[in-house]
Amino acid sequence: MSTSDRAKSKSPKSLGGLVPFLRPYRLQIGLAVVFLLLAAASTLAFPVALKSLIDQGFVAAEPGQQLLNLREHFGALFAVGAALGLFSAARFYMVTWLGERVTADLRSAVYAHVVQQSPEFFETTQTGEVISRLTTDTTLVQTVVGSSLSMGLRNTVMGIGALIMLVVTNPAVMAQVLGMLVLVVLPSLYFGRRVRKLSRASQDRVADTSAIAAEVLNAMPVVQSYVQESREAQRFEDATEAAFDTAKRRTKIRSVLVGFIITATFAALLWGLYQGTQSVIEGRISAGHLGQTVVFVIILISSVAVLSEVYGDLLRAAGATERLMELLATRSPVAEAAAPQELPATRGGSAVQFEDITFHYPSRPATAALRQLSLNIKPGETIALVGPSGAGKSTVLQLLLRYYDAQQGRVRVDGVDVRQAGLKALRQRIGIVPQDSVIFSTSALENIRYGRPDATEAEVVAAAQAAHAHEFITALPEGYQSFLGERGVRLSGGQRQRISIARAMLKNPPLLLLDEATSALDSESERMVQAALEAAMQGRTTIVVAHRLATVQRADRILVLDAGELVEHGTHAELMARSGLYARLASMQFGLNTDPADPAEPSGRASRASRAPA
Asked: What whole-number distance in Å separates Cα of residue 544 and Cα of residue 559?
């Protein structure tokens, strides 16, 4: 939503986005409204009972009878108070339950929606901002649904009831008061709009601080190695101060709004009360009538004061609801097929075809990551993708997993266009071992089982043994039940990678993707991981992405990409004999001199003579 659209939208209407989350709890809402009305009615009954006490409690001539009358009226007042306490407690429970329930549903819905977004969403949205919406914004919504909204409705009912009673009992005076109250409302609307805009801005600034914190805390080794702790602390402080300044402006305007409403309303009602005292002196109304009027005035003033506070909370919650609804309205460009086509059964691996693929990342529309790429990979084949950085190797894997859809051409897995296959079925058919292994904050057992949550412990152990991870896992203090720490901080890089390989092996997919799986490892770790990878590659189609050419020499075929195009393909020996881009890359890595006339650095484009579909 643009800034102009935000300015145009009406603040209370923004809360309408909560209606789908409230609808399943109609019964609870109905009960809350009933208890709310009963509590308000009990409050409004108090001045009537007080009038009876003043006017009728002292009319008896005999002291004994007078005492009985007073007891009777005080009993009525106690009954009103008891009813008020009972109904208020029931109302408080119901509305608090609703606030907690709706907030939990909203938070779950937003999170479930976010995790289904394609990587394009995370190219433009910071993780800290999403976390801020899941925490700060939903907490504001909880405050409104579980407290402020109930208080607002209750005080609205009491205020209207008190106003009606005052008009009925003192019509001439209250006509003047109502005219004065209209003059109070107009400035309030102006200030209310300004409060709402600043509320939205304040929440955006808080989200900025969350984004900075999430980014820096996930990169603490780099921050500390470059001795940038003070700089990052200052950056966070600056963002926090910006949030405080915005909140201060919002609070200042809201304070003016609250003070104006209360003062103006109090002045108007005091005028009405003054007129009432004159009526008692002149004998037009009784003392009990005046006492009743005083209490109704107090109820009306307190209701208006509470409503002015609640209105500020509603404005803040409206901004929070806007942000949450914007997030829920985000639609992933990678959509599930309307009628997903079933993937056929496989034996010995999956077949993969890229048919004239051209693809641009959404964040880089002017640069093609892949250009007219055609590949044909047979079941059980091991294919290596090599080439300079930015050649498009990892893009091939992302299109296979359907993180993105190509602008031109088709990607097929086992003969089915990935756009027509069910996303879940497609991704269940693929296992991936990324360069940066993701380790969750749980045990080694659960980390491996993430590939197949229903796997038995014996199956997990078998996968770990195949991935050469069993030995170091059993050496941990609690073996497979050992907590690995956030992002696997208790493990070495090679150990994390072997956990990742065991996870993929347990999943047992027919198609395995290895994305720079050994690039960040030392020689000893690489030897262990390479042995694990060779075990994982058995009996399935494997696509290996690597810069280190020593890891791909035994592939069935090597495909060389440059600037998004397939420029060479063949075995290691065939490609070395051609003295093309692959041979140049090998010469740099292995110290070979394939062609003294060629420069040491690849030219950036090799001969296109062998660019036929691989």
From this structure: 10
Q: Are 468 and 526 in contact (CB under 8 A)?
A: no
Q: For residues 81 and 46, what is the distance between their CA atoms, to the nearest angstrom? A: 8
Residue ranges and CATH numbers for the domains of the chain are 15-329 (1.20.1560.10)
Angle, CA 73 vertex, CA 163 and CA 47 arms, to 5°: 10
Rg (CA), the chain: 36
Model confidence pLDDT, tens digit, residues 358-390: 999 887 888 889 999 999 999 989 899 988 888
Q: Which tokens is 216 given?
A: 């820096």
Nearest to 24 by CA among 91, 90, 98: 98
Measure the CA–CA gap between 484 and 109, rounded to whole angstroms. Answer: 29
What is the C-alpha to C-alpha distance for residues 553 and 309, in angstroms, rounded to an integer? 71
Q: How far is CA 440 from CA 455, 490, 499, in A?
A: 17, 12, 11
The 10s digit of each residue's pLDDT in 339-353 is 888 888 888 888 999
- Within 282-346, residue ranges assigned H as helices are 287-329
If phi over 0 gives left and psi between -120 and 50 gives alpha, with beta otherwise, what is residue 508?
A: left
75-78 CB contacts, 8 Å cutoff, 24+ apart: 76/49, 76/52, 77/46, 77/49, 77/50, 77/53
pLDDT in tens, 585-597: 888 776 544 443 3
